[in-house]
Amino acid sequence: MGSGRQVDHPAEDSGSGTAHVPAALWEVDGGSPAGPGGTPLHADDLPDGVVVADSRGRVVLFNTQAAHVLGIPAESALGRDYRAVLPLLGIDGNDWWQASDPYGGARDRVRQAERALLLPDDREVLVAARYVRARPGGELVRLVVTLRDASAHAERSRADLVSEVAHELRSPLTSVKGFTSTLLAKWERLTDKQKLFMLETVNADADRVTRLIHDLLDVSRIESGRLEVRRQVVDLPEAVRRVVAGRVASGEPEERFRVETRGELPRMWLDADKIEQILSNLVENGVRHGAGTVSVVIEPCEGGTAVSVRDEGQGIAPETIPRVFRQFWRSKRRGGTGLGLFIVKGLVEAHGGTITVGRAPSGGAEFRFTMPAGAPEFV
């Protein structure tokens, strides 16, 4: 027998000793959708996992997809506490139900937007929740949770990356092809000013393609563990000043940047090129996504040096913070391949350092990375 009927209609004790059948999932909203030809829909017809708990937090509906994602049969889930059936953890490793508290939290909440959460075996799932209340602001009568395996989502993200990379390559290459064809065909008829403009554009587009290729190579090295760190003594404040000077030379107003060095810094053995890449990415991120002044603070910390890059923009939503360093992550407000911050994290960790993101004192985003001091065993 399929699990659909068993899962859709588990018996529920009303408290009077009489068992009754709870409403099907769609009846929670007062509707009764039908499939083709008027055939009633069942929870097993849905593409995502669906788990429904009653007013006491007991699981009363558990469809086939939920069983597939969670790896437990419906018979083991029905009647149990929702937290035991759905032992969800935040990306930070904390109990998500304790943080979200659907039964004891604010009564004006009606939903939880989809987010990535972890199962105890470290598998990632995408979870959304709907709070069904007896009346607005009333007690929770049903908790409806949908979930799906994040691996399919990751595959789509990779497909999106391929599409994005193809687009990023196609645009400059189309420009290069167009301008070089024009230069070859009409060289004698073009003015020096026109030739200069076309050649400068071709040069800039070639740089753009080169940067993209370097990013993809860095991702490959980070994922395969083949990233080499060639250490030498690096003056971090001077490295920051060079990066800022490069931004100013490219047209950014000098007054938009503030560099501050605090205290006496230890001697740092770092890969100069990779440190400049880290700083360039973080400063560019502050310029592109933030607003106002981009501040870079260099200061000693326990065992090394810390660098904080802060902007005065809208900041990063708390629920997004755990994902910003993931490969393929992209801000909704901006495009791009979603590789920059993933690469930054990989470069920092290759030095034995750590990087975090949070809210800056000014209200924007703050990226802070630390690097350990001390001469390496091998240079």
Automatic annotation (TrEMBL):
Keyword list, A-Z: Kinase, Phosphoprotein, Transferase, Two-component regulatory system
Pfam families for the chain: HATPase_c, HisKA, PAS_4
Domain Histidine kinase, first and last residues per copy: 164-375
Recorded GO CC terms: plasma membrane
Main location: membrane
EC number: 2.7.13.3
Domain (PAS): residue spans on this chain: 44-89
Coiled coil: none
Gene Ontology MF, one: phosphorelay sensor kinase activity
CDD domains: HATPase, HisKA, PAS
Residues covered by region (Disordered): 26-45
Enzyme class (EC, first level): transferase
Protein name: histidine kinase
